[in-house]
Amino acid sequence: MDILNVLNIIGFINQNRVVHTVIQEKITKKKYKPKNPVSKLSESDLEEQFLKMIANFNQVSHGWGVPGLPNQQLLFHNSRNWRFDFAWPAQKVAVEIQGFGPGHNSLAGMKNDYEQHTAALLMGWKILYFMSHDLLVVNQAQTFATIRALFK
For residues 85 and 97, is the Cβ–Cβ distance under 8 A? Predict the structure, then answer.
């Protein structure tokens, strides 16, 4: 059995637990509330999919070269209230999941994103960007390899 089949099986098994948690936590979710890995909702469906993918891979492959699960919605710039979708703060590695929402496609939204990411780079952060394509089962091995490369 290859790793992709194992990931699919684990994802299916965990799906019922996740759905129950999502329903309960949607009721109490507050905007920009700090989140703990796996146990809290992500800001978007793509972020939730990324977190499940990372959690499942951690269960299947211990010692994959990444130090545990990332923090979610990590505040990295206090005066601007800027956050990363996911981050490993001790290593200053961040992941941004790029969707197609109206805020990121406007000129003002793009300008804010560029300003935020430039500031993070100047603060010593390494940032990876992923889209829905990167989260597909057929592309997950490459996504893991990309993340792992920043921890070497």
Answer: yes
DSSP E strand stretches across the chain: 71-77, 82-88, 93-97, 126-130
10: pLDDT strictly greater than 60: no
Of residues 18, 20, 40, 38, the one with CA closest to residue 30: 40
DSSP tag of 90 = G
Residue 36 makes CB contacts below 8 A (sequence gap 6+) with 71, 72
Instruction: Identify the helix (H) or strand (E) that includes residue 6.
Output: helix 3-28
Instruction: Answer yes or no: are the C-beta atoms of 93 and 126 closer than 8 Å.
Output: yes
**pTM to 2 decimal places:** 0.68
